[in-house]
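can u pls check wat happens w/ zinc ion
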Amino acid sequence: MPNTTRCRICGGTVTEFADFGRQPLSDAFRRPDDTTEEFFYRLAVGFCGTCTMTQLMAEVPREKMFHEDYPYVSRGSAVMRAHFRGVAQRFLDTELTGADPFVVELGSNDGTMLKVVAEAGVRHLGVEPSGAVADMAAADGVNVRKDFFEEATARDIREGNGPANVIYAANTLCHIPYMDSILAGVDALLAPDGVFVFEDPYLGDIVARNSFDQIYDEHFYFFTARSVAEMAARNGLSLVDVERIPVHGGEVRYTLARPGARPVGDAVTALLAEEEATGLADLTTLAAFATRVGKIRDDLVTLLTDLKAKGERVVGYGATAKSATVTNYCGIGPDLVEFITDTTPAKQHRLAPGSGIPVRPAADFADPYPGYALLFAWNHAEEIQAKETAFADAGGRWITYVPDVRVV
Ligand code: SAH
Ligand code: TYD
Ligand code: ZN
């Protein structure tokens, strides 16, 4: 009998289809002298046969993940900085043109998006529980409430500021298991003709690209147009638009509105039809994905073991949260990957969670270049390969593992 649990959206039965075993917190980079016991949980993902939402089988308490030392910053990629500038500008040009408009962002992080809104002089509020990154936003002139967004927070914001024309969340809504509270909060805060826009990794892309490393503690939900439409309908909202976006290996931007407030766009109908055609709401499709992932693990371990036997150096590139799933699922430690290079100050000189692989600043990558770089930040491949031409010129080769294990 497969493992089952209750769906966090509809109460239906969630059936497990992939198990990644014992995993640490994906963003808990440890000080080398930290002797406290590391937290582990079992990472497994399942599919709800009733509302079709794919979700983790168990929840990690939110305070363990999002706290004062949460290290991820949006500003770590030039492509993402440009992306969020574009998002802000589009809101400023469309939804935020009325009298004294107001925008709220969930998971505003270091303020990369809202800084553009603040500079335009438009009323805004970021809601961000992680202290250090919230402080970075505040230092840039962004209004931030250091808090978890949930129903009570939303009611309080509504009372103090009035309704929001736009509620926006990037790579945040999928992090939040307590969706009933979130959507009740959206209902309390959103203006009658306002929009709730969120963008997150798309299950269709994860399955198509075998990007199993999108599955980790912080990513609780894996949305599709179908599951989001069902989730919206159960909570008094309506899915009115979808847009596929290329960042982070393939995401969808969903727009929710109050029923009847906005017409439902053709893109919704088209994506629902595509999902039906590709069997994205069939457990067999997801089980086949899990089988392909098992082969990637075997191939990657074989490759790294062979390179080590030949005396080659392999360095990881990008201490992503995603890499925690890869290293801990595959059993990759400092014996196979010497260190991981990363530009984020809060991750440097720490040990990657679970694996204990050291994280080092960018300069160490070239000192001297290794023969191979394992591209953990594969979602930023273009940006990274464009700036690391000297590595390639020195004969260095990239190893990727999605959609399959390759040396390029
Ligand atoms: N939006 C940014 C950051 C994504 S990381 C980007 O796309 O780059 C996810 C962020 O969500 C973290 O900063 C985390 O602290 C925040 N978060 C987690 N739970 C939250 C909640 N309930 N309300 C608001 N933010 C939350
Ligand atoms: P990212 O893939 O954006 O997210 P996640 O942690 O959710 O998987 O993380 C990219 C990491 O790679 C981040 O720690 C910054 C780092 N990075 C570099 O070191 N160099 C670069 O050129 C880029 C673009 C990112
Ligand atoms: Zn369900």
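The mean pLDDT is 98.
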